[in-house]
Each structure stands twice: as structure tokens, then as C-alpha cells.
Specification:
This protein is an alpha/beta fold and about 190 residues long. Helices cover about 40% and strands about 20% of the residues. The protein is built from 6 helices and 7 strands, in the order αβββααβαβαββα. It has helices at about 15-35, 85-90, 95-100, 120-135, 145-150, 175-190; strands at about 50, 60, 70-75, 105-110, 135-140, 155-160, 165-170. The strands form 2 sheets. The protein has a 5-stranded mixed β-sheet with strand order 5-4-3-6-7. Strand 4 (about 105-110), helix 4 and strand 5 form a beta-alpha-beta unit. The termini are far apart.
């Protein structure tokens, strides 16, 4: 009976093992960081964050407390993801009661353009778009708003903050019709009591 004896598998050299361990650790940190990057939970107090319009006028979100705040946070690649919701909001805002009672805050993630001369071109484009939609579009130049609300880049984010400053709704990506209905119902409830 002949037995086949195999030599032990060669071990990788020590630097390769360390590199593999370092890669695994980096991946683990990235996964944990990604998991930590989550929208503010419903029921939590909404963070105060600062944005500014294309002319440099600052808005602190705490200044809007006392009325429901609907935050739509997008960048140039995600502006059409929730167009249906924005169209529904435009219809809702036609009534003076809702127009005065809701703070709709459109925020553009323009952190990739916070350098000269791009910043000037972006400001001009934001001014034009604000005129076109009939509402102020605020700018997050340094990403601090995105970080405060734990938002992901390159995706539409919709957050509803109640009159009391608590998060009532938070979602990212294209909202399904049920989610759009939920946001609108929560807004109506906040306004109508």
C-alpha cells in the first residue's frame, strides 16, 4: 500500500500575512463605518446644522423649529430620484396654509465644488435653479450638514423634522409611492394638528 505523502502547504511570507491581516482590518473598519453612516433615527432630536444660500446668507436649522421642516438633500446626480415627491410638494404648497406652515429646505451637496473658480459657477447655477423652482436652494459647501445628518453622498435623502424638533421620517434613495404618501400624511398631520 503506497501512501501519498504531501508536503505541507508553503506558508506565505510574513509580510504577505501582515498585509492580509491589515487588509482584513481595513475592510472591517470600512464596513463598521458604513454601518454607522445611517440616517437619523425617527424619534431622535434633529441635529442643528448650518447651510447657506448662493449669496452666502446662512440658515441654521434651529431657526426653523416650531414648524415642520422637510429636508431634501441631493447632489447633481440625484436630483431626479424624488421628482415625484417634489411635484407633490409643489401641489401641496399652492395652498397658502401649507406654504406658510411648512419649511421645505432644499439642500445641494456642493462640497465637491468648494474651490475657485468652480464655486462661482456653482453659485450662479444654484441661483438660476432657485429662481426656476421658486424656492431657495441652500448649499452644503463643506459637507458638515451631510455629516451632521449622517447622509450618504450621491443619493437623494428626505428627512421630515416635526415642529418639536424630532425626526418623524428619514429615507434615502428613490421613495416608493407608499413612502411618499407617508411623508405627505405626516406633513398634513403636523400642519392640521
Amino acid at each position: 500500500m503506497d501512501m501519498l505523502i504531501r508536503p505541507p502547504a508553503p506558508r506565505r511570507p510574513r509580510p504577505a500575512r501582515l498585509l492580509s491581516a491589515a487588509s482584513a482590518a481595513t475592510l472591517a473598519v470600512a464596513l463598521v463605518s458604513g454601518a454607522a453612516l445611517a440616517l437619523p433615527p425617527v424619534g431622535d432630536r434633529a441635529p442643528n446644522a448650518r447651510v447657506e444660500d448662493a449669496d452666502g446668507r446662512e440658515l441654521q436649522l434651529k431657526a426653523l423649529r416650531g414648524k415642520p421642516i422637510l429636508i431634501v438633500y441631493e447632489d447633481k446626480d440625484s436630483t431626479t430620484q424624488n421628482q415625484a415627491l417634489k411635484d407633490a410638494l409643489a401641489k401641496l404648497a399652492k395652498g397658502d396654509r401649507y406654504k406658510r406652515s411648512i419649511a421645505v429646505t432644499a439642500i445641494a451637496d456642493v462640497s465637491s465644488y468648494d474651490f475657485w473658480p468652480a464655486k462661482g459657477f456653482v453659485k450662479d447655477a444654484i441661483r438660476d435653479e432657485s429662481r426656476k423652482v421658486g424656492a431657495t436652494i441652500y448649499c452644503d459647501w463643506d459637507g458638515t450638514f451631510r455629516e451632521a445628518y449622517r447622509l450618504r453622498r450621491g443619493i437623494s435623502n428626505v428627512i421630515l423634522v416635526g415642529k418639536n424638533g424630532q425626526v418623524l421620517f428619514a429615507a434615502e434613495g428613490k421613495l416608493k409611492p407608499e413612502a411618499q404618501t407617508r411623508v405627505l400624511d405626516l406633513l398634513r398631520k403636523e400642519v392640521d394638528g
